Amino acid sequence: MKSKLKLPAIGCGPRPQQYIQACQRTTALSLDRRRHISAYGYTQAKALVYPKHGSPADVLTLHSHSISPPHSKLITLRNLAAPLNPADINQIQGTYPTAPPFTSAIGTPQPHAVPGNEACFEVLSAGSACKDIRKGDWVIPRRTGLGTWRTHLQVEEDKVMRVDRDGLKAEQVATVSVNPVTAYRMLKDFTKLEEGDWFIQNGANSGVGRAAVQLGKMWGLRSICVVRKREGTEGDALKQEMQDLGATVVVSDEEVMEKGFGERVKEWTNGGRNHLGLGLNCVGGDAGMAMAKVLDPGGTMVTYGGMSKSPMRVGAGMLIFKDLRFLGFWVSRWGDGLPEEKKKTIDEILGLIREGKFKDVPMVEVRWSWETKKEELLEAVQGTLEGFRKGKGIFKFDDT
Residue 312: what are its φ and ψ, rounded to 5°? Predict the structure, then answer.
């Protein structure tokens, strides 16, 4: 009876002819066609990476590498979905307060960073010391800066949090931790709003704005929703869409700047007798201040973005006579500082999605398979920088 061929370990000594022939015989089987797993248990992965800050089109490249089998508390993850957020682009450009680390951990010739902060991953395998996460679980990043624009990832167990996948789609899980959580915390944490009270927000058709409309409606709040002006039927359709989500009043950004806007607000709020105590601002500049002017005395303006890139000029009368508060909210800092509270908020929102009470933001899917070219991915990234998009860009990963 012939003895089984014993192959030397890779990299150990010369390779005899028998070894070379054995490798040739296994070439056809060296990669699993669905998951790209090598015969030696290494997962083949691809990632968008950048070596320095700059325009995404100039600095992003697509890098291939291998991931060894996990051990101890390591887990190997397969990406299912990863959104493209404006903050991700700002990190690549170097204009965001935080950024993913530049390292050579995935075999790049010089230190590179992997962009992306949100994703839904499936656990492919887990090391023997992992306690809370098992193969087949769905997980999301516990903190920002994980680098999610990649097909696969290996991290320690405590870098992610498990979510209950029952009744959910990967894109719903992938997009829950930034926009919906931002809306939830701003409505809950900055001022006490009673049922029947009002809030006003700009960027109302954004991911945060849509979430705020829906949550506010559930909690008995009424809303004035400001969107950028669109002409003709497009504007009418957006207005109806926002009202269907739960918006009480929908107006354009041009209407807010008009002289008589304050009087219109009084009409909507029963002559000012209904409390308008909160403004949610992602635009800044004069548009943000126009909203602040209609807040009730003692009201709160929470700024979580600055799309206009213009400063807000706060008049002394707003501070002295109206006693308005101007505060900021950065969900990344909040979530990194309060991970357990973040987990509770996420679980509650996912529960609402599961029950059909919370609708997804419109999305534009970008399929990412093993054969997808860098140019296709960069085109999707560039689309995030453009206005009047049909929906949030999101990478949907095929069987990579």
Answer: -95, 125
Q: Give 3-state DSSP helix, strand, coil % of the chain, rounded to 5.
A: 30, 25, 45
Name the 3-class secondary structure at 262: helix
**Global confidence as pTM:** 0.88
Assess whether pLDDT exceeds 80 at residue 8.
no
Q: Which residues pair with 301 in a beta bridge?
A: 279, 326
Closest to 246 in 3D by CA, of 273, 276, 224: 224
Mean pLDDT of 362-385: 92
Identified catalytic residue from 42, 50, 96, 184: 96
**pLDDT digits 0-9 by tens, 69-119:** 999 999 999 999 999 999 999 999 999 999 899 999 999 999 999 999 999
How many angstroms separate the CA atoms of 3 and 209, rounded? 68
Q: Please indicate whether residue 96 is annotated as part of the active site.
A: yes
**Eight-class DSSP state of 37:** B
Cα-to-chain-centroid distance, residue 272? 37
Nearest to 228 by CA among 248, 205, 252: 252
CA dist 171 and 46 (Å) reads 20
Angle between helices 179-189 and 207-218 (to 10 degrees): 50
Checking if the pLDDT of 252 tops 60, the result is yes
Residue 252 to residue 40: CA distance in whole angstroms: 59
Q: Classify residue 268 as left (phi > 0), alpha (psi -120 to 50) or beta.
A: alpha
